[in-house]
Amino acid sequence: MADFKHDAGELLKLVGGRENIVSFTHCATRMRFVLADEKKADVKGIEALDSVKGTFTQGGQFQVIIGNKVAVFFDEFSAVSHMEGVDKQEVKQAAKGNMSLLQRAVANLAEVFAPLIPAIIVGGLILGFRNIIGDIKLLDGGTKSITEVSQFWNGAYNFLWLAGEAIFTFLPVGVTWSVCKKMNADQMLGIVLGITLVSPQLMSASDYVAAVEAGDPVKMWDFGSFHINMVGYQSQVIPAILVGIVFALLYRFLKKHVPEMISMIVVPFFSLIPAMILAHTVIGPFGRMLGDGLAGIIMAGFNSPVNWLFSGIYGLLYPLLVITGLHHAMLPIDLQTAATMGGIYTFPVVALSNIAQATAVAAFVFVNRHDRRAKEVGIPAFISGYLGVTEPAMFGVNLKYLYPFVGAMLASGVMGIFSRLSGVIANSVGVGGIPAFLSMRGDKILIYIVCIAADIVLAFLFTVLFSRTKLKDYGNH
């Protein structure tokens, strides 16, 4: 701990002292501050500290990249400042005072999906692994898949669908739970509400459409004077978000106004049942229409006559979405697209963008290979970037020196074009780094591996070339 004592004391001074700190905490690699006045923070002085690998501001928080020993640094900072850190939720709440209305909406959306991301990533990897063993003809001269020649792997292929179905088909359960957790409503009732959206007795949307087109009877709840179609929202994200919000608002209203002596009976019943009714009559159908509309807009661009250009622009500009935090808003749309359209073109481009950002840091380290500081900051950043965590790479190096950021943007723009021309499509969202190839459709995995290799080469070359131009002079050195 003594290693960080000096830098912790200096950081306290450089962020403006105790009186300028509203709250602070840490995550896996960063100290996170909510400052009363961010202008008082001496960014250049902070980034000159030996322990600091970079700084950036996002979501109303001033974040200082420390690295894997951030917990030790946090303890030293707490000691020298004579202040206690708070948990991440409290910091996020404090930070919202520094945000615009749009930023708050995106931050809330991000907080809803943050607990679900590990499951979504695992689900994507499982689907990708099933692709490899079940869909790609790897054996007998390219005529048979692994599952066709091995009973063990055939069993594994079928068994793994348990997790895939639990994650994606029943995703609305996780969404409604997370909304309730975020909005301080009863989480178990949120789970129950989610189950009412995906119950096995409900028809899937595709089955409903097929039944209507074939003129077959549609399952319904018959109330005599009216009926409600028994159609579920399996894999649907946006309807689950809207239903969860309505339920949470009802629950909180009733919790506040119903007398405590009858609260335990009245509140759950009169929040859950109306939410269920609205889910299957108004909110659910509207949410499906809204989600399908958003997914349709994205897919229209990727399926248009200039789909390659659309994909290239998406790859070029995606890093700007990350800087503003707006990339969080894309996750529910991507999931909705995967559920509605059977696959997504955006995720392959996103992963290529992340890989390009990581590679740009590797090129930065190469250009500055005689600089000890560049190696200390860059090597951990590009390794984590290749594994899908790009904040240290993007904010710690690329934006600071600018030319790596531009090099990475151009590479991902070019590869966005190539990805779409190659017809690469993902089953779902997965790890946004090199392991992303596992999330692609089976027949596109090999070509996507080629895309990754080309992306690495281009990002490296562009960054090295830009390091020899005037663009290098515009960075914050």
Question: What can you see in these coordinates?
Answer:
The protein is 64% helix and 6% strand. The protein has helices at residues 5-14, 43-47, 70-81, 88-95, 101-113, 117-134, 146-149, 151-169, 171-182, 187-198, 205-214, 238-257, 260-303, 307-324, 330-341, 346-367, 372-386, 391-401, 403-421, 445-466; strands spanning 21-26, 30-35, 54-58, 61-65, 220-222, 227-229. Helix 17 packs across helix 18.
Summary keywords:
single chain; 477 residues; mainly alpha; 4-stranded antiparallel β-sheet; two-stranded antiparallel ribbon; 6 strands; kinase activity; cell membrane; transport; phosphotransferase system; membrane
Summarize the SSE layout with pairings.
Blueprint (H helix, E strand, L loop, with lengths): L4 H10 L6 E6 L3 E6 L7 H5 L6 E5 L2 E5 L4 H12 L6 H8 L5 H13 L3 H18 L11 H4 L1 H19 L1 H12 L4 H12 L6 H10 L5 E3 L4 E3 L8 H20 L2 H44 L3 H18 L5 H12 L4 H22 L4 H15 L4 H11 L1 H19 L23 H22 L11
Antiparallel strand pairs: 1-2, 2-4, 3-4, 5-6
Q: Give the low-pLDDT segments.
A: none
Order of helices and strands: HEEHEEHHHHHHHHHEEHHHHHHHHH
Task: Indicate the radius of gyration in whole angstroms.
Answer: 25 Å
- Rounded to the nearest angstrom, the distance between the terminal CA atoms is 29 Å
The number of helices is 20
Averaged pLDDT:
86
InterPro entries: Glu_permease_IIB, PTrfase_EIIB_Cys, PTS_EIIC, PTS_EIIC_1, PTS_IIB_1, PTS_Sugar-Specific_Components
Domain PTS EIIB type-1: 5-87
Active site: 27
Organism: Candidatus Lachnoclostridium pullistercoris
